[in-house]
Amino acid sequence: MRNVLSLVLTGLLGWGCAQPPQQRVSFPLVGRGVAAGTFTARGWEVTLTTARLGLGPAYFCVTQADKPELCETPLVEWAATATLDALSPVDQPLGEITGISGEIRSVQFDYAITWFNTQQEPSATAAAPDGHSAVLAGTARKDGNIIHFHASVDVLPYSQGQRAVLGMPVSATVDTQTARMVGLVDPSTWFAQVNFDALLATPGDGGPPPSPQEIFVELGPGSSAHNALVLQLTVNQRPAFVAEPAP
Amino acid sequence: MKRSPGVVLLFAGVALGCTGTSNGSSTSSGGTATGRVQLFLEAEENVTAGLVPGTADENIKDGWTVTYSRFLVNIGDFEATQSANAAGHLHAHEYRVLNLQALPASGYVWETFENVDANQAWDRVSYALDRATAASIRDPGVDQADYDRMVQNGYSLYVEGSITNPAGMACPRGTSCVARTQVDFRWGFDTGTRFSDCGPEEGVLGFSVTAGGTTAVKPTLHGDHWWFTTYAHDVSERRAQWLANCDLNGDGEVTTAELEQTVAADVFDTAIYNLSGAPAGAINTALDFARTATRTLGHFQGDGECEGMQILH
User: Fold this and answer.
1) In 3D, which of A74, A63, A101, A109 has the Cα closest to residue A178?
2) Rounded alpha-carbon distances, angstroms, from residue B196 to A33, B28, B93
3) Is A224 exposed, middle or buried (0-12, 13-18, 19+ CB in 10 A)?
4) CB nearest to B232's CB, from A68, A230, A234
5) Looking at the whole model, is its pTM more than 0.90?
6) For residue B296, which residues of chain A lie inside 8 Å, CB to CB?
7) What ipTM was predicted for this assembly?
8) Which of A155, B34, B38, B44 sits CB 3.0–4.6 Å from B115 for a disulfide?
């Protein structure tokens, strides 16, 4: 009886202590967009001709996404920035992720504009397309109206020392068997809250806008359309990060 | 096979020790040090006092005054365990419908636990706000009509109030601004959330019991999260203009239907708001924003955080 008991206890202790040791890991990060096409956004048919996205740096944490302040040291990180063609469905090398093995539960990242504690104000990195987080261009069509738009989108960190995206859930295990991580983006989802109707010219008497119209619009910071794009990029339609093991 | 009486008694003893009771006691780890735990429910001061405009951290920055006239919750399922002692378990199962504006000044005693182990920390603490049911206990501070509203609608939280500003404007969907000095709201939420891994502002998670004494443990509900501009609470501002901009029919009241009809991008300026740390799903509408706020109200010992959150409904 005593021998059986000691065997059981030894097994239990062995299981409890035999957690895999943490190991240094390093693997590439690639980005991937989607092929250009036409999509619908709040009743408008939208076709993008340009969607360049500045991404990074990114810090992957073991803590939950809604407690970013608890992630003082990330498990793995991509301490660089890169430009991604979001209309290209092919893999695009972005850089190298390094750190130690473990379970990722969240990520904090910037869109190529950083505001570290050492910086006086938000600053665009070299990878920010034209100095912005994203450059988007295309046309939106509805009821004969055509809006040619261009957007220089700036996604700024909320305050010094923080990332633009404070915390996003990610579920991934990274170890020495991880071949790479893929960052997936779909720029069509960024337009879900853009109100193209409000961009049409309206007469001063409050009547309906003249139709049809063909206009050229810059969706710059301060506009409601720019606001809608930033909300999607930071809250609702952020990149998906997927860790892939070696085949 | 018939169980022997000895086996039946053993199972009964284990069951009592493992599940605890509403006057729960814990199994000591071997030492004899125990104490009493009094479980209080606290409401942040702004639940009764509201929020005023100003420049201080906890003021409303855009000129509005927030006043609550009703603040009902269905709260319960408090649980505390010990990492260092698997047998340690405190559990107050019942849910109670409470009026947070009618809590006693000396504190609302939710439960009392006697003979609680004082040798090891109670480092895993959780409780829940969940949908009221007929099993929810009506606190005497809640009138029958309010209780029935909570139960019949399955609300976890019901709040009434108004925002006022003598120079207030309402700009539905960000355009066509009109003068609006008061906007009322009456919102019921059926979100269910468990707040876990709760701890004080400083120190380790949970609480430790004073041997031979009484330890106060205080789950705390905050009342200002609908006015936050970011989920990073330590740097958030408080603003209320977004609510005025949701008054789509201009009648001076914003209903949950109007919240649902309001696209988030139309009322949350990203130059002011960063909602990227939203703990529960997308924020496509103002209703998503308001519902998400209810999932962040649970705190501990005042401003201490609950680091875990589980969506029950």
Assistant:
1) A101
2) 38, 23, 15
3) buried
4) A68
5) no
6) 66
7) 0.82
8) B34
